[in-house]
Specification:
It is a single chain. By secondary structure, the protein is an alpha+beta fold. The protein folds into two domains: about 20-370, Glycosyltransferase (Alpha/alpha barrel); about 375-644, Beta-galactosidase, Chain A, domain 5, CATH 2.70.98. Helix content is about 25%, strand content about 15%. It contains 17 helices and 19 strands. The strands form four sheets. An eight-stranded antiparallel beta sheet has the order 8-9-10-11-19-16-15-14, covered by helices on one side. Strands 7, 12, 13, 17 and 18 form a five-stranded antiparallel beta sheet that branches. The protein is globular and about 80 Å long. The relative contact order is 0.09.
Length: about 650
C-alpha cells in the first residue's frame, strides 16, 4: 500500500450507536448543500451521463438521500438542512417553476424516485408535508399521482408506484388510487417463487440479486408490512413470513467482517445491500434463531461500518463516488448517475426507530457461530454459499439478467463471487487482460484476440451425490461449442478449495483460459508482485498445471487435477487491466491456459480453485497456509464416473 495512509472522510466514526449512525447520515447530507440548485429541487453531483435525461439525474440526487432524511426525522432526529428538501418539493413539482422536474411519461426514470418521496410522506408527514402551503401540497400530490395512469416496467419498479400511493394515502390526498395500488400489489405477488424469494419480474426471469432483497422487493415488503398493517393485514403478515424464511438464506451473503458478497447489478448502491436487516427492525419483525436482535443489529452496522472505512467510496468533499470500493465506471450500468449511489440511504431506516427499540436496546452480537464453517445450498437463487475457513463466497449457476446490462456476463455468469476478493468486469474485449477473467472459463476462437465467458446458463440444477451436492449447467458460447459445468463446494477435508469440472465439445479451434479468484496484485512496497518460490513471501508462482498469487490480501490459486490428461495446461498469473476488479484497482488472476482442437469426442477440465483471504487486520495468508495449498479436493464419485 502507499507509504502514506489514505483514510475515508468518515473513518473516525465507529458506527456503533444510534447517535453514531445519525452522525454518519448528517455527514453524508451536509456536502450535498453546495451541489443543490437555488430552488432546492435538483442536486447536481457530476457530469457523467445516463440513458435518461439530465433533469431526472438531478432528481435522483435530490430524492435518494430522502430515504435517510425521512427516517431521521421520523425517529425524532433533527437536521438543520431539511429546508432544502422542503423547498425542493415546492419548486420541483411546480409546473411554472424553472426547476420543475417534468411530468412523468411511460417508463420514466422519475417513477423510480417517487418511491423515496412516497416513503418520506408516509413516515415524516409533519416535517415534509404539513410544512408545505396549500399550493405546494397540490402540486406535489398531482405530480406523484401522475404516475397512476402510466405504463411501468414489469419489474420491481411497480413497488415505486405502490409507495407513491401509500404516501398519498397517509397525507389524505385525493390523488391516492386504492385500486391501482391493489392491482400493483397483486401483480407483484406473482413474482414470489417460495422459500422467501421473489424474482425481479414475471415467470421466465431468472434474476435474484440484491433487488430481490435489500435494494427493492424484500425491503419494500417489510416497509409496507409496517405502514399498511391496518389496511392490509393478511398481505402484511404474508410478507413478514416471507422475510423470516428469506433471512435464513440472506445471512449467508455476509461475512463476519461486515462485507457482503458482490453479485449482480447496481452495486454502486453499496451499503444498501444490508438495508434488509434495517427493514426487519423497522417492521418490528423477530426472526428465527440464531438471528436475534443483537445479530441483526450486528449484520446491519458491521456492513455500514466497513463502508464507512473505504476511502474510494467517497470524493474528497464527502459525496459518494460512482463505483464500488473505488471509483469505477466499468462496473456501472447506463442508469447510474452521480446521484444514484445515494440509494444506500435506505440503510438508515433504523433511525426511524426509538432508542428503546430492541434493535437499538440489544447489544450488538457477532456473526452467529452456528453459521460459521458451513456450506449451504440456496435453491431458489441457484447458489451454494460457503464460509469454511474464513472465506465467504457463493458458487453460482443459472442466473442471468433478463435485459441487456453492461458486463452482465461478469455480474451474473461467473462461477464464484467472494466477499473478500469481489469479482472483475471487462474493460475491453481485446486480449485476455482486458476481460477480467476471474472465476470464469474464457474461450477464444481468434487466437486470443477476443474472448467469450459464460453469460446465458441453461438447464441449471442441483444434483446430489452420496456426500456432496453441486450445481450442474450447460452453456453455449457458439453454435458449435457446448460446455457443461459442475461446481462443487468446499469440504471439511479441503476447506479452502472448490472444484469445477467442465465438459467441452467444440467444432472450432479454441484457446481456453480458466481463472481463479482475483487478488490485490502489489507487494508491500506498492510494486507489482514478482515470481517467488517461497510460501512466506508475497509473489506469484507459476507451474505446469498450477499457479498461485500471495499478497497482503491473502492467497489465491488454481490447479488442474488431471495433469496426465491435460499436460499442456499452463499456469500463468495474469495481471489484469487497471480497474477491472471491484475491490482493488490493480489485480492478478491465477489462470490456466490451453488450446483445444475440434473433434467429435469431449474434452474435460477438472480444476481446483483455492482462496484464503487475509483475516481482519492481519495481512497476507496466515502462517502455515501452504499446508492447505498442498491439499487437493476429491472429485465426487458421481462426477468421477463421468470422467472414465
Amino acid at each position: 500500500m502507499p507509504s502514506f495512509d489514505i483514510k475515508s472522510p468518515f473513518a473516525s466514526n465507529p458506527v456503533e450507536t444510534r447517535d453514531d449512525l445519525a452522525r454518519f447520515l448528517v455527514d453524508l447530507l451536509n456536502p450535498l448543500a453546495i451541489h443543490t440548485s437555488p430552488g432546492g429541487a435538483r442536486i447536481h453531483l457530476g457530469y457523467t451521463g445516463t440513458h435518461f435525461d439530465e433533469t431526472a439525474a438531478h432528481l435522483e440526487g435530490f430524492s435518494r438521500p430522502i430515504w435517510g432524511l425521512a427516517s431521521l426525522l421520523a425517529g425524532g432526529g433533527r437536521y438543520d438542512g431539511v429546508e432544502r428538501w422542503v423547498k425542493g418539493f415546492t419548486n420541483g413539482t411546480n409546473p411554472d417553476h424553472v426547476e420543475f422536474w417534468g411530468d412523468m411519461r411511460n417508463k420514466d426514470q422519475r417513477m423510480v424516485e417517487c418511491s423515496a418521496i412516497g416513503f418520506s410522506l408516509a413516515v415524516a408527514k409533519e416535517h415534509l408535508w404539513d410544512v408545505l402551503d396549500a399550493n405546494a401540497q397540490t402540486h406535489l400530490e398531482d405530480w406523484l399521482g401522475g404516475m397512476n395512469d402510466k405504463e411501468m416496467p414489469n419489474t420491481n419498479w411497480l413497488w415505486f408506484r405502490v409507495f407513491s400511493n401509500l404516501g398519498l394515502s397517509k397525507v389524505g390526498s385525493s390523488k391516492y388510487d386504492a385500486k391501482r395500488l391493489k392491482a400493483d400489489m397483486d401483480h407483484l405477488d406473482t413474482f414470489y417463487i417460495g422459500e422467501g424469494w421473489s424474482r425481479d419480474g414475471p415467470e421466465g426471469v431468472v434474476q435474484l440479486d440484491y433487488y430481490s432483497s435489500s435494494f427493492a422487493i424484500q425491503f419494500a415488503q417489510l416497509a409496507y408490512s409496517k405502514l399498511a398493517q391496518k389496511e392490509d393485514p393478511e398481505r402484511c403478515e404474508e410478507y413478514r413470513n416471507r422475510a423470516r424464511l428469506f433471512a435464513q438464506d440472506f445471512v449467508r451473503y455476509f461475512d463476519p467482517e461486515g462485507r457482503a458478497v458482490p453479485f449482480g447489478r447496481s452495486l454502486t448502491y453499496r451499503f444498501a445491500m444490508s438495508s434488509f436487516w434495517g427493514a426487519v427492525a423497522f417492521a418490528d419483525l423477530e426472526l428465527p434463531a440464531p438471528l436475534t436482535w443483537g445479530v441483526v443489529r450486528g449484520l446491519q452496522l458491521r456492513n455500514i461500518r466497513w463502508w464507512v472505512k473505504q476511502p474510494g467510496a467517497y470524493n474528497i468533499d464527502g459525496t459518494l463516488t460512482i463505483g464500488y470500493v473505488y471509483p469505477n465506471q466499468a462496473m456501472t450500468e447506463n442508469y447510474n448517475s452521480p446521484g444514484s449511489p445515494y440509494w444506500c440511504c435506505k440503510s438508515f431506516v433504523t433511525l426511524a426507530l426509538p432508542p428503546d427499540h430492541p434493535f437499538w436496546a440489544s447489544p450488538e452480537e457477532p456473526y452467529p457461530t452456528s453459521l460459521l464453517n458451513t456450506v449451504k445450498s440456496l435453491y431458489k437463487p441457484l447458489h451454494i454459499a460457503s464460509n469454511l475457513s474464513g472465506h465467504t463466497f457463493i458458487l453460482s449457476s443459472g442466473q442471468q439478467c433478463s435485459y441487456p446490462v453492461k458486463n452482465s456476463a461478469a455480474k451474473y455468469g461467473k462461477f464464484a463471487y467472494s466477499s473478500a476478493f469481489g469479482y472483475s468486469v471487462a474493460v475491453g474485449n481485446l486480449l485476455l487482460h482486458e476481460v477480467g477473467a476471474d472465476s470464469v472459463l474464457a474461450l477464444s476462437d481468434d487466437g486470443g484476440e477476443t474472448w467469450k465467458c459464460r453469460r446465458e446458463t441453461r438447464e441449471a440444477r442441483f444434483e446430489k451425490g452420496e456426500r456432496d451436492e453441486w450445481l450442474r449447467s450447460m452453456w453455449y458460447p457458439w453454435k458449435d461449442v457446448e460446455v457443461e459445468t459442475w461446481l462443487v463446494p468446499p469440504t471439511q477435508e479441503a476447506p479452502l478449495w472448490h472444484l469445477r469440472v467442465h465438459r467441452l465439445r467444440t467444432g472450432r479451434p479454441l484457446q481456453s483460459a480458466e481463472g481463479g479468484f482475483a487478488i490485490y496484485g502489489q507487494q508491500e512496497n506498492d510494486r507489482a508482485l514478482e515470481p517467488t518460490d517461497w510460501f512466506d513471501e508475497y509473489g506469484t508462482n507459476e507451474q505446469e498445471g498450477s499457479v498461485f498469487a500471495h499478497s497482503e490480501a491473502g492467497v489465491v490459486g488454481i490447479v488442474e487435477l488431471r495433469p496426465n490428461a491435460r499436460r499442456n495446461r499452463k499456469g500463468q498469473a495474469v495481471r489484469t487491466d487497471a480497474n477491472t476488479n471491484l475491490m482493488v484497482p490493480r489485480a492478478v488472476v491465477p489462470t490456466l491456459l490451453e488450446e483445444l482442437e475440434p473433434k467429435a469426442e469431449d474434452d474435460w477440465f477438472v480444476t481446483a480453485v483455492f482462496g484464503l483471504p487475509s483475516q481482519g487486520d492481519v495481512e497476507g495468508g496466515p502462517s502455515g497456509w501452504e499446508v492447505e495449498w498442498k491439499k487437493r479436493p476429491v472429485i465426487p464419485e458421481g462426477i468421477a464416473k463421468l470422467l472414465m
